[in-house]
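Filed under: proteins

Residues; backbone shape codes:
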Amino acid sequence: MPGFAKMKQLSFASLAYENKKKLAKREKFSNEMEAAVPWDRLLKVCEPYHPKSGKGRKPMPLETMLHIYLLQQWYGLSNLAAEESLYDIESMRRFAGLELGDDAIPDKTTLLLMFSGLPHIVCCVNYGSRWANTTACTN
């Protein structure tokens, strides 16, 4: 399974998906982006702005949320469309590191609160070609 996902038991649907003969364009693109994005640096810069566990619901992992944010940017998805796509499209779930039967799929409100409340994360991700200089996001 490409991406950052931890080793976990796959569902029957995911196993069937693993054995398909052809990679779709979206999956090829996701694999290329997984390799191209400097995740370690991006996560390091954004981590201070990610909510910590405490009162209320446990926050989604930052790496998952950044993957979802990028999917939204690349495919022009609203929060609702991103939520529905994660339920509907296996390649997007894989890129986000989510397994449908095991992981919570973030709802539109979770996505809204994550990115509207954390402009620094949006800044970090939106630097695009300036990812090599991710320290600029902290200024």
